[in-house]
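Retro notes - structure team

What went well: the batch runner handled both jobs without manual restarts.
What didn't: labels got mixed up in the shared folder, which is why I'm recording both outputs here explicitly, each with its sequence directly above its tokens.

Job 1
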Amino acid sequence: MGPDGPVYIPRMLPGEVVEADTHAIITPSPDRVKAPCPHYRTCGGCSLQHASDRFVAEWKRAVVLGALAGQGLDAPVGETVTSPPRSRRRATLHGRRTKGGVLLGFHARASDTLVAVPNCILLTPELMASFPALEALVKAGGSRSGEVSLTVTQSLAGPEVSVTGGKPLDAMLRLELARVAEAQGIARLTWEGETIALRANPMQRFGAALVAPPPGAFLQATAAGEAALLGFVRGWTAGAKRIVDLFAGSGTFSLPLAEEAEVHAVEGDAAMMAALDRGWRNAALKRVTTETRDLFRRPLEPDEFKGFDAVVIDPPRAGAEAQVATLARSRVPRIAMVSCNPVTFARDAKVLIAAGYALDRVEVVDQFRWSPHVELAARFTVS
């Protein structure tokens, strides 16, 4: 505690004693570990590598428990399921041209400085193998005065890359970018929202179906995290004959669930619904119907849930306040909710519980290893 109140020092752990002026650690926590990545001191891509895996897992579980307690709720909460190192299959890197070539990496913590990460232990080997392609794109379409952002996603056909902040497109740049995409094996290249090259459809596998999501579409951060969430959802909807999947995206849950049940998928993005539908039509699954609908402005009403045995809902960070309000009146027997924000989840859960649902179980999933981000899956039943 400083003379004017608490002093906040980054990357400290509970119980540590720190020298006030230099921030040198006098008494380290038993949970402090040597960061496994050589870039950790300078790179801002990770923020928790100085803490043991056990500490981070327990802390993330405590975040979920705290969010529930904040709404006066209590439920069994499972141990955190953590994705392994080198498993992030999507990331946004930054690059700029330099006098000697190209600098590509993540920003330093709380800084615009770029840090190269040639041995990153967060990203999949496939993403790391795409770095030469990303560097070639920066060289072709970047500048020394500005920074290019490159979102790269692993797909079955190779990396998919979406670029912002590059040079304005003209005929020469289009040709050069298309040449780079072909030479570097980029499946699909999007530049400022415009598809420049489509060498192959950037397919993702959702159960038995293959789907090519539109550029920028949502994808779970790791295959391991997706498998954990899907396992929970499958277990909690087992035996259902008809399921409605809200905020369905491109079919992460809809298509695997359609192996056993009919599914009605609802999502506000028409391109994602079209991708899901194409994936379903090319797979041997039970019937899947799609509906493009803004669930924030026009949520499904209680009578529209009639005939469904279970609901799957996976809203964005803001939660699903309007949709949960009508869902609470539906009396659908089972609800599986996936959330990337424990605070909005707890707020929405309280509405369901007040309407007569019981929160039977919560599972914590850590797809964003070494970051403060927390995800969860939960099961509700009519009490």
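Job 2
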Amino acid sequence: MEVTVDVAGKVVLITGAARGIGAEVARRLAAKGAKLALVGLEGEQLRQVAEQCGGQAWEADVTDWQALETAVNGVVDHYGGIDVVVANAGIAATGFIRSMDPAAFERVIEVNLLGVWRTVRTCLPHLIASRGYCLVVSSLAAIVHIPGNGAYSAAKAGCEAFADSLRAEVRHLGVDVGVAYFSWIATDMVNSADEHPVFGPLRSGMPGLAGKKYPVSDVGRAVVRAISRRSKAVHVPGWVGGLKLLRAFTPKVVDRQAPKSVPAADREMAANDLSGLVGPGGTAAAAAKKD
């Protein structure tokens, strides 16, 4: 019989909480009485979300050890501990690997994979103390590796593997670990990518459900449910869970589809220097790297 945990009064730390999935989850948890600790860039936006949630904001780059440690220590000093961590901070970049801006590719890996590792490592002693729950945000991109999404797919596949290893390591300490797999969600990041002259048509032209976007509210509901159940996995939409069982066949499907759209897209990317980070989050991450 599945046990459901009341999130009221629980201290939940969410990274990448200034907008999109992080902000949506924060608002829904606040409505259920959770205490929110929001960590991320875009300080003014982050503070606005915290105010809406009755929570607190800590501006920090998840790739910066010192900034993360300062933020986590601040959360613990303020709330007395941490019960749940949602390692959500992530960015995306458009580009084909042969012509992609190396700085953009590597910044995606830094934020989406190393940022998760650094967040979890910094918070882990507090999760062990509370026998808490950690949710690592991976993606459908960990399962299906499409052209033009190499950096994001590599990072999110790494997140999945990292979380699976972590789960086995900390179960005996009373900490549960979940992995979130989301398809295309109508966030600023995905909407900005859709405006790209090459990647946008490539993404939206994917066959069937693969090209559909889903509302961020679907993710908010699913993540709150996963936290209350300390779930091992959460999928939005639900068919993503079924696709995981067939992942051995997904490269063949991508290989079959790629010849229809990739050659022209690849040439245009290479000729016009169209790669780079997308959306407000990408802009903030690029600025943080320069600082």
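One thing worth noting from job 2: The beta strands are 11-15, 35-40, 56-59, 84-87, 93-94, 133-137, 176-182, 233-236, 276-277.
We'll revisit the folder naming next retro.
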